[in-house]
Amino acid sequence: MNKNISTFIGCEEDFAESSTVIFGAPFDGTTSYRPGTRFASQTMRLESYGLETYSPFLNKDLEDYAIFDAGDLEITIGNKHKALAEIEDMTRTIVQAGKKPFMIGGEHLVTLPAFQGVFEKYPDVMLIHIDAHTDLREDYIGEELSHATVVRRIWDLVGDDRIFQFGIRSGTKEEFMWSQAGHTYMEPFRANTFSSLLEKIGNKPVYVSIDLDVLDPSLFAGTGTPEAGGLTYKELEALFPVLAKLHIVGADIVELAPHYDQSGVSTAVACKIMRELLLVMNDRN
User: Fold this and answer.
1) How far is Cα 148 from Cα 213, in angstroms, rounded to an integer?
2) Where are the domains of the chain?
3) Which is nearest to 234 in space by CA: 284, 280, 197, 273?
4) Which CATH class is domain 20-282?
5) Model-wide pTM > 0.90
6) What is the tens place of the pLDDT at every residue in 228-263?
7) What are the distances in angstroms from CA 216 to CA 107, 219, 231, 232, 270?
8) 269, 242, 235: which is closest to 253 by C-alpha?
């Protein structure tokens, strides 16, 4: 893999020397409300230079780690199955090289192929899902592959006791009841029990997926499906020290649609979340 000219701040190492590889998956082919997440990764790379590489909250610096930004995939337009296969192939390439994938979506369906690529190497991998929406539908308007079904499709792979959901505040009654039947661990509305993951997960491998619409739209307007009543940034930030103690083998952030927030604040928030998540997955305490 060659160096990407436009990189996320502090992520400019060579592929061979890096422990983590960033790539963008600019796909929003199953967006059910407002499209635009395909523009997130390039917008975030540009806006990331408004940040410092150093996180005073975590006391860690991106410049102390070897991280490679591979740029965006050239996603096939008009063929959902081929697009998902391209994302899975990229993830598999990264994982088989002994590195951790970090994907910038895109809408949330892109998590499925990325998770599948990680699952091949780590069949006992757990999913931490931070989101406003359950994403547990069996199908959405007859489609089994949708950003509204992505976590249900991951459950098809891993089964019960492997999926942990936080911040959820929107979904059908059937989705909430299905989770409550013991299929996933869900804390609706908040993430006050997040630290319990240290005991529940222990040293098992973890894939982390953060849907940015978990944040309240009063501070994060740039998303395709805003849902009132979400987490504040400070509430989300409090999760990172817990994540730093887990064995993260892959991660993504999804559902930034930058053009719905002309102020650029949503993109700036997304960049900071990405910086913190990159830091904790590269420096486990």
Assistant:
1) 13
2) 20-282
3) 273
4) alpha beta
5) yes
6) 999 999 999 999 999 999 999 999 999 999 999 999
7) 18, 6, 5, 6, 13
8) 269
